[in-house]
Amino acid sequence: MMFEYKVVPAPAKGTKAKGVKTPHGRFAVTIEQLLNEMGAGGWEFQRAELLPSEERAGLTGSAIHWRNVMVFRRPIEQDVAQQDIEAAASEPYVAPSPFVDPQPEPVLTATAGDPEAEPGATQVPGPGARDMVAEDGVEELSPVSGMTEALKARAKQQHD
Q1: Which of 126, 122, 154 has the alpha carbon at shortest distance from 138?
Q2: What is the value of pTM for the model shown?
Q3: Domain range enclosing 33
């Protein structure tokens, strides 16, 4: 479960309340009112902290002031995507069968420079290009590139 937090300054003095006469009692009523107000908004009190706060003093100086704050938290709704991730993580993994040959997705191709090519289509070299694909699917380079027969045989062997 995830939470969000809210930190508010702790009251510095008590407020007047009916039937409460001491400073301690007034302060307690003020804290009680703050806790009830935050609780109505779904916030759960966690703790009170005394923390240092560095503040400017004069033109170039600084001073440390200690501040009392109250920390509240409440649960937050998880994203639907996060719930999907957790659901997927709880499902067992099923490995794909080595005996199933997945069919490749069809690829849209167009000759380079084709004005009627769809946007995003894979471009293949047009006639007269330096690189060509042989009938068996092994890429062959024209003699201009200087590939030797030994390298062609090695590429064909690796393809098979």
Answers
A1: 154
A2: 0.48
A3: 3-57+64-75
